[in-house]
Protein 1
Amino acid sequence: MAKAKKDLSKDKGVRAVAELLMQSAKTRTSCAPIAARLQALGADAAYAAQDIQTRAALKAGRKIVGQKIGLTSTAVQKQLGVDTPDYGMLFDDMAYGEDEEIPLSRLMQPRVEAEIAFVLAHGINNPKATLSDAVRAIAYALPAIEVVDSRIKDWKISLIDTVADNASSGVFVLGGAPKKIDSFDLRLCGMTMELKGEAVSLGCGAACLGNPLNAVVWLARKMAQVGRPLREGDIVLSGALGPMVSVTPGGAYEAHISGLGRVSAVFSKA
Amino acid sequence: MTADIAVLATKLDDAARFAKATAQIDGPPISVDDAYAVQKASIDKRLSRGERIVGMKMGFTSRAKMIQMGVSDLICGRLTDAMMAEDGGVISFKKFVHPRVEPEVAFLLRKPLIGRVTPLQALDAVEAIAPALEIIDSRYENFKFSLTDVVADNSSSSAFVIGPWRPRDIDIANLGLVMSINGRAQAFGSTAAILGHPLRSLVSAARLAEAYGLDLSPGHLVMAGGATAASALSPHIYVALEMERLGRCGFSVEE
């Protein structure tokens, strides 16, 4: 981990933000945006706040099973006034299987987005990783629905808010039919996500940074830079292929990705 | 009402011919049937000037489009040969009022298609499938219109570009697409936006053709409807569409 980051993790303001977000998650009570508190220190401080929470989670016995990449759509980046994606950690207790009911009680203000997930055959510890490293590291692609969630009231987030809040991650569902990445069109694969047969989100592979592999390359470099390199077996949620949608209680969302298959996220009624 | 239809047809034909916006239809609301009668009378004027019918277009087939336009009914319009622009060709901005472009799927028919048909019958009538771009251009001021306004105005259809034809056995349910302007992605989507499956639009086309007296014969085209929200055109741009498995098409816009 970089020196500057260690210093930031000792910053009082950073620690207070991490504490507030952990408390918010624990009590499932959303909090006001925290961006103003870290604005002077910038995005590094937000990642430091995230890292404090990650370390607390590991200490509590949760295991990291992968990473999510957020802010991968140029439309969303414009909305937040940023030109970079962000990342968050995926923990073992966030994973749900296809058609397994997700209890709303563990979420606050969930939204769903359809993505391509990658499973890594081996790690990448290279701050200057290229597409070659990403392509060789990926074992399989899987269709995924990421359930994003925000500890910030009404999703009033800026870059700093979402970074400090583990990139607004919630839980995720992976489809169980792995495909090799040369078996479908990563860039032009169509995506439709339906609720009761009606399309609620539409898009394609290119909506994620032009190609989901671009997101993986960004993540690989970033994680190597911050001292948590991608590891063998990691699950990478590469970023939304279409707009995110608020979850309806009891809803069953079914995403189809052309050439990759389908996956569904089923929510409890309450 | 007959006189009104002729007057409205002339108003809309002139607006299209001279690329000059016209006011929405005023007075008591006209029926949808009358609106289609105006559309036919207006297109008949083009036919009398030597244009010929080459197919039909479907409109308001996507949720994004319905939200953008604030309507909930499917509509159709007539395509003539003069509206066809070449793939890779150039269109002239000044021939339009306030043109927009949207990505679509086009069907080429090998059999007549009319009335209530099953998806299987509709697919059997298809010779080939192509990626396509439709240039929509409401002849009304500020692109504002009611359902009957837009139907009378040939459902805003004004020009179209068709890409390479592919065999009909390609599964078109969920093909990803990227529409770009000057090489920068402008819209991402899927053909699933077109009524959940573009073939449903063709089934509806057969029904609307019978209801409003349009012709769907062998050799005719059907533009299935926009798959994303439309983007405004301006001079000196290049618009391109890439569609999963179907390939690409594009056109340039000059002054």
Protein 2
Amino acid sequence: MTKPRQFWKGTFAKYNYQFVLLLFLAVWFVVMGIVNHSFLSMNNIATVVTRLSEIAIIAMGMTIVVIAGGFDLSVGTIMAMVPCIVGLAYGQGVPFAVCLAFGFLAAMAVGLLNGVLIAKAGFQPIIGTLATMTALRSLIYVITKGKPISSFPENYMQLAHGKLLGIPIPILLMLAFAVFFSWIMSHTKFGRFVYATGGNIKAADIAGIHTAGLTIKVYVLSAILSALAGILYSSRLISASPDAGANTSFDCVTAVLLGGTSIAGGKGNIQGTVLGIIILNFIINGFNLIGINAYWQMIFKGCVLLAAIGYDSRRKPGFKMVKQKTA
Amino acid sequence: MKKMKKLLAILLAASMVMMTGCSGKQADTPAPQPEEQTGQEAPDAKQGETEAPEAGNSMAGSKTDADTIKIGIVVKQAGAPYFDYAAGGAKKAAADLNAEIVSYTGPTSEDVNQEITFIEDLITQKVDAILVSTADSTAIIPTINKAMDAGIAVFTFDIDAPDSNRLFCITAGNAEESGTAIGESLAKAVDGAGQVALLTGGLGSDTLNRRLAAIEEVLADYPDIEIVATEACDDDFEKCVSQVENLMQTYPELKAVAGVSTVNPPAAAMAIKSAKKDGQVISLGIALPSQITEYVDSGIIPEAILWDPGVMGYDAVAAACDYLRNGELPTDGKDYGEYGGKIVVESGDSVAYIPSIVFTKDNVHDFEF
């Protein structure tokens, strides 16, 4: 999120779709606050926001990938892989900083592979990342023998469980990343090139943007953010599970689209995605508190995704809700 | 290309609606890990008589008979028949003991992260007790401890998380005992020689792993029995079927498969039947009678072992109520009434076992679950 004033001004002036989302969230808070007294407690809000920070960080990377005209199914697998590598290496007595470096390098390698498959070899993003996702998941099972890894330094859990100025560290990290990537996307050449590439890759090529290189960078970035989320995840559970993140890519895409980013690329922003994540998680949290079972929650999520895509495809070409290219 | 992407996205969305397997949330435990808790640690049942609640354990005996005890149940896979029976038993106990099952929920496919979310939201709801069957005995620990710190009595059932602060585990088929039983019937069924394969639900489960280890230990005494593979299907029936089909393809000499999760034997039997290998390959292990009746009758499953999951659910609720009202944890021989039966607690352990049942052709029809 950008500076509050800009954010609000922007919301009213340009981002009327996101304004509707905010309004919806407000209504949901009021309704749930009346229905269930625990919902508005600080404790509940802090719990929900903390647990959504991991997926929000991944979804930021996903947003950039989708804006660039891509799609990344491998995020959940990378999120599972990195802590497994870190934990396994640490269990072998490797210094922790080196373990972390291993983990992030491995994630970057997967991102690079995704990028090369899509930008150079010409695979459809969904197919290319589906391939890496599938192969990688099996690789994780091979290296971990399918068992959770729990060899981590003693104070490792402080990362996810610790607080700074009374705010849980994952929330701070998420906010910092949100501000940083909003800025990147709206105020840097890289950001503008991402919008341009996703909007019309041929035009971007003709305009002299090195779109292949840009695509690769975007996938590497997504992989790095997934790796970071994986570190937070394992720090929270003090355990690296080879099964982690099985549905993460679906959840991320739902939030990205709900936040107003176009599946066709070229349109969207980070704030919308964070808002989408917040809405989805508080809805599910509300469902849990009033005892609506898991099946209905899944059906609800599927409907949200359909509605968001339906809305996206209905937007007329000339009517650009999120004019970020000129920002 | 854009059109294609849109189409794919819509397909994804549709699959989310249909698939039961999409988890939602990133769960979390923001609270710091509990410090060493005096008196919070699984209170000992060593003397066969639980001591009065200690300091810091204010929930023990905090309720009277007049208080309705609110209980939340979180299972590793909602909708699995096994857990539905357990929940049925739990509801029966709730009716008998003035308790209320405020929620019975769980991920639609095994996902510890989602389980954590459910538990956290139960903490927010301020239930009196939580009964958990975990998908990952390690990853669940901080969350169980967080619930205990919040003054909620946490009992594990079916699958334990022994290293957490949970009060007690109500389970069945002591992992070693049931594993040994499966191992022995497996050795008997193949006459002490030949290729066999083992099947499990998920490799992250401590109980299932111990059960597997017990089978392997029995088979170690039979040098002519070769364990060709151990497959984990994540409690996914279809996946187990195809794993067994692949096993039979790869190892034409395979004589038997033994499963340690209830999904395995019926799935294996289905694979055997559809490959027309009845009589050549048999399926054994932990199974629900209602799911295996036809295979037991046709001889593909000569025998299977289980307990009544309903009794497990009943006893877990009874144990929670007993703890909250009287401050007592389960002890060996504790009688939970006509339906609940008598539990077994091994000396010095905080795990209670309900009795196992062996199903054969003769009695498989006698059980409803």
